[in-house]
Write a structure and sequence with these properties.
about 70 residues; alpha+beta; two-stranded antiparallel ribbon; 1 helix; 2 strands; about 25% helix; about 15% strand; binds zinc ion
Length: about 70
């Protein structure tokens, strides 16, 4: 795995996961990063690099919260 998720910017938990929502009833098949501790989540991303995009969005938010 080349993508490293940063801890949750809201609760500090490392229990975060990036995953694609590929269920048939999810029309956009988007990918998000979610914190299992406080249920915070990143923006939903779509497209062939949606997982990478979601991770990038999550990490960017985490960096911003630290400053
Ligand atoms: Zn959290």
């Amino acid at each position: 795995m080349s993508n490293q998720l940063k801890p949750c910017p809201f609760c500090g938990s490392n229990d975060v996961e990036a995953f694609a929502q590929d269920e048939d009833d999810c029309p956009h098949r988007s990918a998000i990063v979610r914190c299992h501790s406080c249920d915070a989540q990143s923006a939903q991303m779509v497209g062939s690099t949606k997982i990478d995009m979601a991770i990038r969005a999550w990490n960017k938010r985490s960096e911003g919260a630290d400053k």
